[in-house]
Specification:
Layout: E1 12-17, E2 35-42, E3 49-54, E4 60-64, E5 81-84, E6 94-102, E7 113-118, E8 124-129, E9 133-137, E10 153-155, E11 163-168, E12 174-179, E13 186-190
Parallel strand pairs: 2-6
Antiparallel strand pairs: 1-2, 3-4, 4-5, 5-6, 7-8, 8-9, 9-10, 11-12, 12-13
Length: 193
């Protein structure tokens, strides 16, 4: 619950739940999953965000979406920032997200950021905009956050409308993306051999 198109909210939340079982027959009902709600605020006011990633050590990062308040597939009005939530985040309190860095992208004519994902081994992270996928790589021997200040490379991506989701494959050798809306396809992009 991190979206805030008009950047007016005072509090945000991350919901954690076990992956529900998918019904095996059409029309089967499933129970609403039980979840934990982790509330947070930003140290510097309200922000809209669509990117959320968890590094292999469990650190949670929120990536802002800097765009006009209409939501949707819009031009970015500046680069995204990354905020870190404290490791002590708990359901009974409100945590404070602290700014780690402002990225160099989106920039120029890029569209706004819509998703982010941490590599399963902590070697990189992906930033998905509506028109590009950027990969930021961790320099050899450095920690995960060192990737935040590297120059990203643009990686090949599928052509899909309203791109809203991205994650690395479990083996880290490619990524999965999906758009928004009913019957949005799920697309896989593999690394070149």
């Amino acid at each position: 619950d991190i979206g805030d198109n008009n950047a007016q909210r005072s509090e945000y939340a991350i919901l954690r739940f076990l992956q529900p079982t998918v019904p095996t027959a059409p029309g089967s009902t499933s129970m609403t999953p039980v979840f934990d709600r982790f509330r947070f605020t930003y140290e510097d006011g309200s922000h809209n965000a669509e990117g959320l990633m968890v590094s292999p050590d469990g650190t949670i990062y929120v990536v802002t979406k800097v765009a006009p308040g209409s939501g949707g597939r819009v031009a970015a009005t500046g680069p995204s920032s990354i905020y870190r939530l404290p490791s002590s985040i708990a359901t009974g309190s409100v945590a404070k997200a602290t700014k780690v860095v402002t990225l160099t992208v989106p920039a120029g004519t890029d569209l706004a950021a819509s998703a982010a994902a941490a590599h399963p081994c902590g070697l990189a992270f992906l930033l998905r905009t509506y028109d590009k996928v950027y990969e930021f790589t961790v320099p050899t021997g450095m920690g995960f956050e060192a990737a935040f200040t590297t120059t990203p490379r643009v990686v090949a991506m599928p052509n899909e409308p309203q791109s809203e989701g991205i994650d690395y494959r479990a083996d880290g050798r490619g990524f999965i993306t999906s758009g928004e809306g009913a019957s949005a396809p799920i697309m896989q992009t593999d690394c070149a051999p």
